[in-house]
UniProtKB/TrEMBL annotation:
Name recorded for this polypeptide: 4-hydroxy-3-methylbut-2-enyl diphosphate reductase
Amino acids binding isopentenyl diphosphate: 53, 86, 136, 234-236, 279
Binding site for [4Fe-4S] cluster: 24, 108, 206
Functional summary from the UniProt entry: Catalyzes the conversion of 1-hydroxy-2-methyl-2-(E)-butenyl 4-diphosphate (HMBPP) into a mixture of isopentenyl diphosphate (IPP) and dimethylallyl diphosphate (DMAPP). Acts in the terminal step of the DOXP/MEP pathway for isoprenoid precursor biosynthesis.
Key words, A-Z: 4Fe-4S, Iron, Iron-sulfur, Isoprene biosynthesis, Metal-binding, Oxidoreductase
Cofactor remark: Binds 1 [4Fe-4S] cluster per subunit.
Keyword rRNA-binding: no
Length: 345
């Protein structure tokens, strides 16, 4: 009879669930803004670009009567348009005014902070190096605040091609949804070229982006597979896949829905890490957990690295409309929030 005493027992299947994950305060605010605009004004409510980068959210709001357009020219004159959480340039605001559009600005207050930094540094005649992805709505909006002063740096590899007027009068700012590690590497290389490079007054990469990356870094080394719930055009969600792989996960995939999981990914997998981008509602994560539970991954261990309690007041224009209608401002409803609302900057 064979001796089985040296056989190592098979490890149980489990899920490591990142916390925090999913909706951030800026996304929560933007989505509620469209929902409340629909409640107050009825359909259609126009939204410039996707209100947030998530397929499910856009489809759900479309079903309620939101119409997503590429530019303000696509909105009938005099109608209501919501600006997305990613922010817009002054040129977009002017174009909306020229068409007599009613506007609700759902720009995330943390993006607004970066816009104000850009304006302030441009007023002081700095060359501004905007670390971010060219073509992303947030980057286009920020660059539009001071186009004569801003140049975009997409990655560390582009640093060698940066030229400035005065090497002693250069500052960097960044898109809010970047990889923290890659951004710091870009800054390091920029500082090698421009030793007096100034930092922004405070960190531009948003708290939610950083928190989600930290949580993934913590559990990725223990994971055979990390599933990131998020859309392909969501910068912070894409970064989570990259962070998971760099931190030691054997494989990582980005999905919008549980049905997109390929069962072959689970072959030989004992530990699955699960997280979601900052524009992802929790219902989509729960669908993934249910899918995994049906396949033997019933043990779920939460890996918490931070507790988020920040919330933002709704856009000023919407708060005024709610007040006129005698409707109390709704509180954010997706995830833990503090009792104190933070006014938009």
């Amino acid at each position: 009879m064979p001796d089985l005493s040296d056989k190592t027992p098979e490890q149980p299947k489990r899920v490591l669930l990142a916390a925090p994950r999913g909706y951030c305060a800026g996304v929560d605010r933007a989505v509620i803004a469209v929902e409340k605009a629909l409640d107050l004004h009825g359909a259609p409510v126009y939204v410039r670009k996707e209100i947030v980068h998530n397929k499910y959210v856009v489809e759900t709001l479309s079903d309620r009567g939101a119409i997503f357009v590429d530019e303000t020219d696509d909105v009938p004159e005099g109608k209501l348009v919501v600006f997305s959480a990613h922010g817009v340039s002054p040129a977009v605001v002017a174009a909306a005014k020229a068409r007599n559009l009613q506007t609700i600005d759902a720009t995330c207050p943390l993006v607004t902070k970066v816009h104000k930094e850009a304006v302030r540094f441009a007023d002081d005649d700095y060359d501004i190096l905007l670390i971010g992805h060219a073509g992303h709505e947030e980057v286009e909006g920020t660059a539009g605040e001071a186009p004569a002063h801003i140049q975009i740096v997409n990655s560390p590899d582009e640093v060698a091609g940066v030229t400035v007027r005065d090497p002693d009068k250069v500052v960097w700012i960044s898109q809010t949804t970047l990889s923290v590690d890659e951004t710091m590497e870009t800054v390091r290389r920029l500082r090698e070229r421009f030793p007096t490079l100034q930092d922004p007054p405070s960190d531009d990469i948003c708290y939610a982006t950083q928190n989600r990356q930290v949580a993934v870094k913590k559990f990725a080394p223990d994971c055979d597979l990390v599933i990131v719930v998020g859309s392909k055009n969501s910068s912070n969600s894409v970064r989570l896949v990259e962070v998971a792989l760099h931190a030691g996960a054997r494989a990582s995939y980005l999905i919008d829905y549980a049905k997109e999981i390929d069962e072959a990914w689970l072959d030989g997998v004992r530990t699955v890490g699960v997280t979601s981008g900052a524009s992802v509602p929790e219902i989509l994560v729960q669908d993934v957990l249910a899918y995994l539970a049906d396949r033997g991954y019933g043990t779920v261990e939460e890996v918490r690295t931070a507790t988020e309690d920040l919330m933002f007041s709704l856009p000023q224009e919407l708060r005024a409309d709610l007040k006129k209608a005698g409707i109390a401002e709704p509180r954010p409803k997706r995830g833990p929030r503090a009792e104190l609302a933070v006014e938009a900057l």
